[in-house]
């Protein structure tokens, strides 16, 4: 199935603020899950959630999931054919994502269910982490 067929079949819609396309898989009082697609040159902007989030690669090109953990920039390459198909981002961790090429489709799982998201500005992250010189420029400002 190609990118356009996936968008139509999953009814993916723009995700305001963060970027990318999404649709809800399910949501209840305890947890939720979404489909999330990043189409280059768009991206998932730097943001953080109060709960941990599991990212699982489903289709398309490898996804580059960037996190800042304990003051260090980490890049997790999620792909179906590789060794790393998923990554659990700890609660309150800055994260951003981009497709390595054309597009990447993942599922994201939260427990407890999504409540709020905080978007970061470039100035905010640079001032918080002055030692990170290669911070990916993934901001919708």
Describe the structure.
This protein has one domain (3-128): Sandwich (Jelly Rolls), CATH 2.60.120. The protein contains two helices and eleven strands. The protein has a six-stranded antiparallel beta sheet, with helices on one face. Strand 6 (63-69) and strand 7 form a beta hairpin. By secondary structure, the chain is mostly beta strands. It is 11% helix and 45% strand. The N and C termini lie far apart (33 Å). The model has no long low-confidence stretch (mean pLDDT 96). The longest helix is centred in the first third of the chain and has 8 residues, at 3-10. The protein has helices at residues 3-10, 122-128, and strands at 13-14, 21-27, 32-39, 44-48, 53-60, 63-69, 72-78, 86-89, 94-99, 103-110, 118-119.
* Number of strand segments: 11
Going by CATH, the architecture would be Sandwich
CATH-defined superfamily: Jelly Rolls
- Fraction of helical residues: 10-25%
**Global shape:** globular
Average residue pLDDT? 96
Classify the fold: give the CATH topology: Jelly Rolls
Strand order of the largest sheet: 1-2-3-10-5-8
Per DSSP, what share of the residues sits in E-state strands of 2 or more residues?
A: over 45%
Count the helices. How many?
Answer: 2
Identify low-pLDDT runs: none
Q: How many domains make up the 3D coordinates?
A: 1
């Amino acid at each position: 199935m190609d990118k356009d067929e996936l968008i139509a079949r999953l009814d993916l819609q723009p995700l305001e603020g963060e970027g990318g396309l999404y649709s809800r898989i399910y949501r209840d009082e305890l947890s939720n899950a979404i489909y999330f697609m990043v189409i280059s040159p768009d991206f998932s902007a730097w943001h953080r959630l109060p709960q941990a989030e599991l990212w699982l690669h489903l289709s398309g090109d490898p996804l580059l999931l960037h996190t800042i953990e304990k003051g260090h920039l980490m890049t997790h390459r999620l792909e179906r054919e590789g060794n790393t198909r998923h990554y659990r981002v700890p609660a309150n961790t800055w994260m951003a994502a981009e497709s390595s090429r054309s597009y990447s489709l993942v599922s994201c799982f939260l427990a407890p269910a999504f409540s709020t998201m905080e978007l970061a500005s470039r100035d905010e992250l640079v001032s918080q982490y002055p030692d990170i010189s290669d911070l990916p420029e993934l901001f919708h400002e």
